[in-house]
Structure formats: C-alpha cells, structure tokens
Write a structure and sequence with these properties.
The structure holds two protein chains of two kinds.
Chain A (H helix, E strand, L loop, with lengths): L1 H13 L2 H4 L4 H6 L4 H30 L8 H23 L1 H7 L2 H6 L2 H12 L4 H29 L11 H16 L9
Helix pairs in contact in A: 1-9, 4-5, 4-8, 4-9, 5-6, 5-8
Chain B lengths: L1 H6 L14 H7 L3 H24 L9 H23 L1 H7 L10 H11 L4 H31 L1 E2 L2 E2 L14 H24 L1
Helix pairs in contact in B: 3-4, 3-6, 3-7, 4-5, 4-6, 6-7
Chain lengths: 194, 197
C-alpha cells in the first residue's frame, strides 16, 4: 500500500510529467490561457491516461511479451490511444456537450500528445504491476492537471502585465514554465532524497 | 518549390515560431551530441513519412487519414528506434522514450496533414527537408548552449577553462525551458527588426 502512495506522490509532484519529463508541452502552452478550459483539458487527459495505463499494461503483458512482439510497442500503443480518445470524444459529446465545446480541438490532440504515449512507454519500462501502473497513469494525469491549472492562473495575470513585445506569447510562457520547474525541483527532496 | 523548402528554416520554423514538437526539443537537448542524434532521427522520420504519404495521398480515404498517417510515421519511428538501439546503445539510452515519442511529435503529423497529403512528391520532400533543418538547427543550438553552460564543453571538448563554474541548472528541466524561451524571444525580436527595415 505504501508503494502505491509513493508512486502517486512521486508522479504528481516529484517527477511531474510536464516539469521533469517535458511531456504534454503542446497543450500546456496552447490551452493554458484560461483556467476553466485548463481544468477540463486536465480531467479529460487524466481520464484518458488512467484508461491508457490500464489497457496498455494488459496488451504489453498478455500480447506483446508472450509473443516477443515488444518491437511493436510504439505502433500498438498509439493505435489503442487513438481509439480511446475517439471514445472519450463521443462520450463527452453526448453527456457533457458544453465541456466538449470548450475543449474544441484539444481533445483529438490528446491522441497526438506525447504525455499519453509517454506514459504508456515509461510504464512498460518500469515493470509495474497492474494496480501500480494504473496509479502511475492517474498520478501523471493529476500532475498534468496541476501544471496546466497553475500555468493558466499565472497567464491570466500576465495578460495585464507589461511583457516586452518579443517575449509575448510563447517566450514568456516558456520562461515561466522554467521558473515553475525550478520550484517543482524543490519537491525532489521530499521522498528520502529521491 | 524553393519556397516550400525555405519556409521551414526561419519564417515558419516549426519550433521557434510554431512552438511544435517541444517535448523532444526540451528533453534531449542537454548535450550537443544527443541533440544531433535526435535531429537526425526526426529528419529521417519526417522525410520518409512525407515521401510515402505524398505518394499514397490519393488512395487514403479522408475519414481515416489521421490513423493512416500515424501508422506510416510509427513504422519509420520503429526503424529509427531499433537502429539506434542496435548501433548506438549508449545514445539510445540517453534519448530514452523520446525516440519512440517521435510518433506523436506534432511537427511530423502537422506536416503530413497540412502539406504532404495535399502536394506532389517533390514539393512534399522539399517541405519535409526544410522543416527538418529548421528543427535541427534549433535543437542543436539549444544543445550547444546548454552543454556549454552546464558542463563548459561542446561535443565533449572542454572549451571553457578551469575558471568556469558550471551552471548545473542548465542541464535540468528549468534550464531547457528558460533557454528556449529566450531563443523564442530573440527570434521574434530579430524578425520584428527585419520586417521594419
């Protein structure tokens, strides 16, 4: 049980996917202009990532490894993720149309988002068991939501700040991300110097 | 045709202007040599995927084009990944999951969607080459800057003397974000100057 908590805390704070693995940077820069859409995007991603962690673990353990097909890892994971996202999209369109509208183009973009495939690949490198892998996926999603929300909050403030002309948009966002990454490095002492 | 090639170099640089494909740019640019290998892998995948997709563009049904692109791209990514694992195991370890992650690199999919699937082969190739070079010079420059400030070396050769105290932070994630942010800003500034004069 301890192990599960450790994985959860580690993926949310210490090894936050955005700030220490640089995964999910595109939506991080693109969607994070508004706090409300940042949260929606974050939860959509968390949902997809938890499901992905579950499904890819099964595929890896029961199909790829027994038949020595590990070299197909990339191809098979991306196909699974693409179908999952399609499913989430249809689900949201039916059940929460307002959220579906707010997410707009970003939902299909989750497919081609490194954070989901990165999660699947990192998970398969780490030899987690099924529960650990699902927690790993969930934690990564929450960490991503956290990063998006913090960034959105800062950017709403930045709107009113006097940013030098060339740094407006991408430049200042990257520099803020750097400072946030620096802050998140502070968490690395939390887990026994880990 | 020349325009298709030149576009990606500076004016529509996929990284600095388009802000695409940042994951790999930020993650593996901690040393110059890693950047060079990453740039080569991306170039290989982008050029060959554009070639194939441009050739088969008329037989791909519109509804399933994205999955088809992804399968083509994933094939070349797997080739690149296995090649690196076999011949450069050390580098492959450094690059970690970022070589397989080229599959979801926005630059590559964006070029297929926006260009290769709509244009004849030689244009698609010119575009892919231009974009690859645009990506490559940014990631290699970033790698050189980070390695220089983080270790005092370039491609493993010491260039700054013993007086230099390395900034460890340049090798860590914050250094990557901040350096790229400064590069994006500098690029904008130069472009704004150039368009005024």
């Amino acid at each position: 049980m301890n192990n599960i908590w450790l994985i959860l805390i580690a993926t949310i704070l210490v090894n936050n996917f955005v700030f220490s693995y640089f995964l999910g940077i595109c939506p991080f820069l693109g969607v994070s202009g508004k706090a409300s859409s940042a949260i929606g995007m974050g939860f959509a991603a968390t949902f997809v990532m938890t499901m992905t962690a579950f499904v890819t673990w099964l595929i890896n353990r029961y199909i790829l490894i027994p038949y020595n097909l590990e070299f197909l890892e990339t191809v098979s994971f991306i196909l699974v993720i693409a179908s999952l996202v399609q499913f989430v999209e249809m689900f949201l369109k039916k059940v929460i149309p307002s959220l579906y509208k707010a997410l707009g183009i970003f939902l299909p973009l989750i497919t081609t988002n490194c954070i989901v495939l990165g999660l699947a690949l990192l998970g398969s490198m780490r030899n987690y068991n099924l529960l650990e892998n699902v927690v790993f996926g969930f934690g990564a999603g929450i960490g991503f939501t956290l990063a998006l929300t913090i960034m959105a909050g800062i950017r709403e403030e930045i709107e009113f700040a006097d940013v030098p002309e060339p740094l407006k948009g991408g430049g200042i966002t990257l520099i803020i991300a750097g400072l946030l990454a620096l802050a998140f490095m502070g968490f690395s002492g939390m887990l026994g110097g880990g | 045709m020349k325009k298709a090639f030149v576009n990606g170099l500076v004016k529509e640089n996929p990284v600095l202007v388009g802000l695409l494909g940042l994951c790999s740019v930020l993650a593996v640019s901690n040393t110059a040599i890693n950047s060079v290998f990453m740039a080569a892998a991306v170039t290989f995948v982008l050029v060959f995927s554009s070639l194939i997709i441009s050739i088969i563009r008329k037989i791909i049904p519109d509804q399933v084009r994205i999955p088809s692109f992804i399968v083509v791209i994933a094939t070349f990514v797997t080739i690149a990944d296995l090649f690196l694992k076999a011949y450069f195991p050390e580098i492959s370890k450094n690059l970690g999951p970022f070589v397989p992650l080229i599959v979801v690199n926005c630059i590559i999919l964006a070029r297929q969607e926006a260009f290769a699937s709509k244009n004849p082969v030689h244009y698609a190739l010119a575009d892919a080459l231009g974009m690859s070079i645009g990506y490559s010079w940014v990631i290699i420059l970033l790698g050189i800057v980070r390695e220089l400030l983080g270790f005092g070396t370039i491609f493993g050769h010491r260039v700054l003397g013993a007086w230099f105290h390395p900034f460890v932070v340049m090798l860590l994630p914050p250094g990557a974000f901040i350096t790229l942010g400064v590069m994006v800003g500098t690029m904008r500034w130069i472009q704004a100057k150039a368009s005024k004069s």
